[in-house]
Structure formats: C-alpha cells, structure tokens
Specification:
Length: 487
C-alpha cells in the first residue's frame, strides 16, 4: 500500500535546499507475482572496524561513552518522489511511499508530550537501544516484495516518538579568554517541567535535573524530548522494485546505517530557555572566568541514517575518514552572531568556527571497484587541541551537516560527493588504492548555500569592506582545502 507522507518542518528543512522535482514513476504493476522479502535493519558504525582514535572526541559523546540511546520508532518509509507546494514550489513531503512499520499518530500538544515522557520513564516498551546490537535486532520491519509496491524509490524517512532515553558521558569543551578546558558531564535522571503558555504559545516539556551534569555523580538514564524525531536520506542508487527483482525471489536488506559519534552534544549556556530539552540547575563558572551560566544543556540527539538496499547475503564495507577544518577567522556570511565577534577582521580566536569532518563511504565488500552506495559527511566538534571548536559559549554554533545524495566517479580518478540536488559538497577526493589506516587524502570542501557555510568559507567574502560577493557562488562556489585521514 502506498501513501503520501508529510514530514516535520525541521526534517523538511534538511531537504529544502537540496531537492529538485522528479518525473513521476510509472504506475505499479501488480501482475508480477510475489518475490522475496525486504527487511529494514539498524546497523551501527560500531559494527564495522572503527579504526584507531574514534573514542577521543572533544565536545560530544563518542560511541564508547554512550551506554544507551533508546528510540521508539514509529515509521520507516521508502518514497518515490517529492511533493512540491503548487504555489511556492517548496518541498512539503514525499509521495508514493511504502511503510515498514504501522504509522502511529504523533503527540502534538505539550500536555500530550509531557504524558508521553512520564509513561516512558516507567517503561521501556517499544524502545530500541541503538547502542545495543541485541536490542537493534528486535526491530521487526519487513515487506513482501510484490507488484503492489513496484516502483523506483529515491528517498527514505525514519520517525520516532517524542521521548528518547539516554545514559551517557560527554566531554564538553569550555572555552575561556586565553584558552579552553574540558569538563566531563554525565546524564542525570531529571523530572518533567511544563512551562506556562504565554499568549497560547506553549513550549515543549523540559526535563530538569537537580544539581549539575558535571558534579561527578555516576551517569543515570534520562528521559527527555526530541522535538524533531525524524531523519531523511536519499538513496545514492534508486531502488528499483520491478519484475526482475520480484522474479529473482531474492531477499533484500534495507540497511539503516548510523554513527553515534557526536549525536549527543553538551552546551554550557550563557542563556537558557524553555526550548532547551534537558537542563541542569546550575549556575556554573565558565572556565574560571567568573562568568556564570544559568544552566548546562544537553541537546536532543542528532541521529541520522544512511540508507542502502542490497541483497541480504551481501555485506557492506565502510571507509571512514576524518579531517580538521580551521576557520580562517573571517566571517563570509555573517554567521557569527556573538557580540564579542562583530566587526573585527580577522575575528578573535574565540570566534573562529573550527570543526572536524567525519566522512564515511559505504560499498559492497564483494565490489572490487568500491562503488559508493551511500555516504555521510558529519560535522563534529574538533578533537585537535590546536584547533578547538568553541561553540559552547560564544553562540556561534557549528555548521549543519549536509545531506549527501550522490557520488560521482570522474575520469581523473577523483570522487565527487553531492547533495540530492547534485550540488558539489566534496570534490577532488582520490580514494587510496589500499585501505591502510593513516593514509591521507587532499580534497576540496565547497561552500555556500545548500552546502556548508562557516566563518572562512561561504558565498561572500568579508575580508574587505563592503563585502564582495563571488560572481557565481552556485555553479562556481568558494572552496576550502581539507585533508582527510583514513582511520
């Protein structure tokens, strides 16, 4: 059975700049008979060889420090096309979708969400722990491959309930006037608080912890709200359910690959609001400066998936590269909003947008050519002490990780990674012939609208006043070199 799927506003924003309209797929043919099964499975990056150094992550919880991260999945869908608003042309959802799970209604009101949090604290029913291979194996999501679901599927959508559960230890960077220090935070149980509704605008429930995340107490399981609760992805190779697939009687797997590296992030806040999902009671001295933060915040988990459909008997290969991006100290798009940073060229060190990039490439182990079937480029807190990320107190924030949707192998032997709209994100990437840890790859990171915009790379250059716009920032965007290391 196929249906039209509306996505949440935040999930839609992930695709808003990348999606382009597609030609409708041909109508399904129901006379093909019945084939094998298509089963969705949850695959952690930890199931692959992680390589050295993956646990030394500053500012976020590395996989080994997340004792548990539990989600209650409501929906796993594959969709053929996008839906555009006829008046504005903007992306509003997906069409011609098939669903692996019963699509449960989403609790919308703050009171309903508060009740969901209370119920979840008393029961683990329906939750799957992404940090546990045994728990992930309990996902029961399979479809019969037959003519009723025939079509060409280009997108995937995963949705989970509002409450999430986490037990984790985070190493959080606290920048100061002359350098930075780190604090170890641990999740605490907390209780739900429901704020008043000024002018009928009710904020979501907030989980509040008595004491501090940094007080040294053992990590506890906490239950708090995820206002997004969804992830979208694009298939690099469209999934064609056709007569050939059905007649092959082959069982297939939809691998939903995720990486817990950086999905939980802490922030020592100079100001807190009812929108912060998990807070402690502060106040806290920021790196010995005498400046007090009213609370510490642990953000909602930023869980993303790479979707790959392949025969059940095949296995995936994962290549993982890590690179460090040093902000130049200039602010191309005015993205640095902190008052201490404005009007200075170059920006002071505490205002640079420095970060790491984690690049994962997935291919079939049986494919000697290592054709990329899926990839993820994730913006992470820097683990380089000489190039620290400083998002926690300056309000700068890290750039949003782009959603990749295509990989192109060029005639010169380089790989180009694109978003779903076929705009280049990474170019000039030459994969090492031998997958030896420590091998380095020099590439270009292409910046601007729909790509990555950060202090030092964007669609404008503010090194001069007034700012100079590039002639063609869309087809010929500014670039920044980045060196990746295979781990």
């Amino acid at each position: 059975m196929k249906f039209v799927l509306s996505a949440s506003a935040t999930a839609l924003a992930l695709f808003a700049l990348a999606c382009a309209p597609k030609k409708p797929s041909p109508p399904p043919t129901e006379s093909f008979g019945t084939g094998g099964t298509l089963r969705a499975v949850l695959t952690s990056a930890a199931d692959f060889d992680p390589g050295p150094g993956r646990d030394a992550v500053i500012g976020a919880a590395a996989p080994s420090t997340i004792a548990s991260l539990q989600l209650a999945f409501q929906q796993i869908s594959m969709c053929q096309d996008v839906v555009l608003d006829p008046n504005t042309g903007k992306f509003t959802g997906f069409s011609e979708c098939i669903d692996f799970l019963p699509n449960e209604p989403t609790a919308a009101s703050p009171a309903d969400r508060a009740k969901q949090l209370a119920d979840a604290r008393g029961s683990n029913a329906g939750f799957i722990d992404l940090a546990s291979k045994t728990s992930r194996a309990t996902l029961d999501a399979a479809l019969e491959i037959n003519g009723e679901i025939a079509g060409t599927y280009r997108y995937g959508f995963v949705k989970w309930r509002y409450p999430v559960k986490a037990q984790a230890t985070l190493e959080v960077m606290i920048p100061g006037p002359t350098g930075h220090s780190t604090q170890v935070w641990r999740t605490r149980a907390g209780t739900t608080a429901l704020a008043a509704c000024p002018e009928g605008k009710c904020p979501a429930p907030q989980t509040q912890v008595t004491g501090s995340f940094a007080d040294g107490a053992p990590a506890e399981e906490t239950t708090y709200g995820d206002p997004i609760g969804a992830a979208v992805f694009a298939f690099f190779a469209p999934v064609k359910i056709n007569e050939e697939m059905i007649n092959s009687q082959t069982d297939y797997t939809l691998d939903l690959v995720f990486d817990l590296d950086g999905v939980l992030r802490g922030r020592a806040a100079t100001s807190c609001s009812a929108k912060d999902p998990l807070v402690d009671s502060g106040p806290h001295d920021l790196s010995g400066t005498g400046s007090l933060a009213p609370c510490n915040v642990i953000e909602a988990p930023n869980v993303t998936f790479v979707g790959i459909v392949h025969p059940k008997d095949e296995r995936l290969r994962r290549e993982y590269y890590r690179g460090t991006v040093a902000g130049s100290g200039y602010d191309p798009l005015g993205v640095v909003t902190d008052a201490r940073c404005g009007g200075e060229f170059p920006l002071p060190p505490a205002c640079k947008q420095n970060f790491d990039l984690g690049l994962a490439l997935y291919s079939l182990r049986s494919d000697a050519q290592r054709r990329v079937l899926g990839a993820e480029l994730k913006v992470l807190m820097s683990r380089n002490d000489d190039n620290p990320s400083v998002e926690n107190t300056t309000g700068i924030g890290l750039p949003r990780s782009p959603v990749l949707g295509n990989a192109v192998s060029l005639g010169d032997g380089t790989l180009e990674l694109q978003n779903e709209g076929r705009s280049r994100i990474v170019s000039g990437f030459t994969r090492p012939a031998a997958l030896t840890p420590g091998a380095t790859v020099d590439a270009w990171l292409e910046c601007g609208v729909g790509r990555l915009s950060f202090a030092g790379c964007g669609a404008a250059d503010r090194r001069v006043s007034p700012p100079v716009l590039y002639d063609d920032p869309i087809s010929n965007p500014p670039k920044k070199p980045v060196q990746f290391t295979l781990e």
